[in-house]
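Researcher: Going back to the complex we discussed earlier. I've cleaned up the inputs and rechecked each line, so this should be the final set. Can you rerun the prediction on the complete assembly and write out the structure?
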Amino acid sequence: MSLLPFFIFVIFVGMVLWLSFYFAKQTKTSQGYFAANGEIHWIVNGVAFSGDYLSAASFLGICGMIATVGYDGFLYSIGYLAGWMVALFVVAEPMKRLGKYTFSGILDSKFNSKAIRLTAGVSTLIISIFYLIPQMVGAGALVTPLLGLPHYVGVIMVGLIVITIVATAGMTSTTYVQFLKGSLLIFFSIVLCIFILIQGLNTEPDQGGKVPFYKYATIQAQLQGNEILPVDTSYIKKGEITNQKLTFLKLSKDDVQTWWLKDIDLKGDIILKETQSEVRLSNGEFFINGKPASKDNQLRQVGNLEKIGGESGEQAKTGSVNPFKFLSYFSDKNTVVKRWESNLFKDGDDKVTVYYPIETPGNKILRPGLKFKVEGSLSEKLDFISLMLALFFGTAALPHILIRYLTVKTPADARKSTIVAVASIGFFYILTLFMGLGAMSSGVLNLTSSNMSAPLLAKSFGILLFSMISAIAFATVLGTVSGLLVAAAGAVAHDFMGTFGGISMTDKQKVIAGKITAFSVGIIAIILGILFKGMNVSFLVGWAFAVAASANLPAIIMVLFWKKTTAKGIVASVIVGIFTALGMILLSPSMYTHYGLNPDLAPIPFSNPGIISIPLSFLTIVVISLLTQKRNKVLTG
Amino acid sequence: MYSKSSDSDNVLAYKVRIGVYMILIYALVYFGFIVINISNPLLMEKIIFSGLNLAVVYGIGLIVFALILAFIYNSMCSKKEAESNNNMFSKKGGK
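Model: Rerun complete. Updated structure for the full complex:
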């Protein structure tokens, strides 16, 4: 482990903790703990907004997804930002004007209903936990290359540091940590993008000479009877597996067994393409690319362009490029990107994971379709629409975004800070396209986790940039998790115990209750963060958005804009939104894959629930409110 | 419907109305992006300018458009708030 990343990491975490303890001395009341006394300047609040929002999902997840599936990752950037429009135009000022701490407070501003407080409190807790999972997964992914520690250590480390932060100072420290982190993240992302453009593109990236470019072999094969055999007799065939319509041959050469993908070349001849493989034997032994796994024998990093505008080798080197030219190379149908996918199967008692190359033309890279099959079946198209709906409607309903409206003085300040956030977040999201494509073409991708693409890209430019970027990303996780825990703490202190539980608490007791909640939710997040290791963090955040958009947003919009909304309508809508979104996620193909089951057997055909759960939640609030109008009039009358 | 208004009802109603118009305009452009993708995805490959295809131009365009609308919205709201404050000031002055 290099000492520089360790020192930079310690300095960042130390700075974050110092800020917390410093502001802890100034936090005396629950108003100070949960809403920073409403005294944050709108510019600071705006940048802190971006710090909150540019979480692990944005930096690690989106860049990683763009690096592996191209434009489909950028859809998250587009959708995340579009969600801010709902926040700015529909929610920002009315929310600030209502002056409430929590989601339930907003809903309850019109009705004095314990049921509303309970359901809204539960909803805030569930969304917070959903949003916490990817942050924790991101933290785990970061510490492995940064400090050489296992995934679970990173998750526990973040959990404990954040619990300390939240248990001390609350919203003021969270705001300044996010301000600092948001500014640094954008600054160093700009630096990284400048490096990418100066370096330009070539078909044999070698990480600045640090890691020699590996050329994967392709060998000829032929049919002998019904059997496919390599033409080169130095390879001895040891087995053949067909799984999910792909055929892999196990070949042995010099006593090293490797897996090869069967393919057909342009002339119609059979060829075998070299892959990478992980094989776990029944006795527990673990092999990578045919040799025992060790510190020196790991999966090779991948990701390169096979052709740039139709050229390869020396002729393809572009030298420094401007941003437009950089993107145009990736839009070009004559550019070919070598991407990697995985296939899991059993070979006798051995568990095999094969990572195989796919060549994709540029015109397919920079448009939707590689992950979200916009040209596919109806359910695949619905999955795409569903994701875009959830991202659009989810932002304004996220609990840690809502509470930040309360940290400034006036509705006009809330509006201005949202605009600062939109500007900085939008700018950062444009950068994600360059960072993701840079990682896709620079031979830096980790085959087992896309989440580390941006930090590993930074590492190819030097250990200092890598250390800074990784430490900022870690601070990103710390800040976002802190905000979420404050939101969860607020939900419990104000909604459950203060009102529903019938416990009358003093100001000090409310803060203590909030801190105990922050601790408990933090522990739950640590456990879930370990369980969800390996899933793309942006994909996980997409689910948090879907739950928020389904459970919270219909209620917020209707209570602000529809006079006939009733308390029972709100409660029913939140419950329907939570259960539909959660149920659909748990029965989705993605979760079936995570359970280790066949995703084709999942009862719900798409992975994003928004297209069903959001309209259903709106419908519920309208129908139930209309059905309970008479009673409502009698009560209010 | 807002209980703790510091603006006049007139200004508040104006800001809500502008906000609704803005979100409708943005939603139209945003959902246009979704519709093109599912109805004619190949159109997204079409090169628009400087070698950039429609997907890139539309995607980045949505981000830039969001910022432009945000500035317009803020400017309209601030102008209305200033007018309202001036009116209140001149009324007080008149007394």
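Model: Worth noting: Chain A has 23 helices and twelve strands.
Researcher: Good, that matches what I expected from the previous run.
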